[in-house]
Design brief:
Distance between the termini: 29 Å
Structural class: mainly beta
Number of helices: 2
Number of strands: 7
Order of helices and strands: EEEHEEEEH
Radius of gyration: 13 Å
Length: 101
């Protein structure tokens, strides 16, 4: 049976988080102290402009927020800011919360 749940792997010495989902892998440069900011993801609603800036990927900043339509979903936005992003990945909220521990 195939597990379609996204996976994450953090390489602490290199400060590199790998997020893999649906045949896509995103490498995010992020320090452990920035990962701890993700404990605030439950209240980081995008429509309320509460995205969390933490990490870099593809030469851009990475923003983490709640999906306003899917209650148990978090979103990684890669881009200049959280409104003009170039890449978005949707992840289960509990997976992102787990990164903060």
């Amino acid at each position: 049976m195939r597990d379609d749940r996204p996976s994450v792997d953090y390489d602490e010495p290199d400060g590199l988080l790998t997020v893999s989902a649906d045949g896509v892998s995103l490498l995010i440069r992020i320090q452990r102290s920035d990962l701890q900011l993700l404990a605030g993801i439950p209240s980081a609603w995008w429509l309320q402009r509460r995205s969390i800036a933490a990490g870099t990927a593809l030469g851009n900043r990475v923003f983490w927020c709640r999906d306003d339509e899917a209650t148990n979903t978090a979103v990684i936005l890669v881009g200049r800011d959280d409104e003009t992003w170039e890449l978005a990945l949707h992840l289960p909220l509990d997976l992102v919360i787990g990164l903060a521990t």
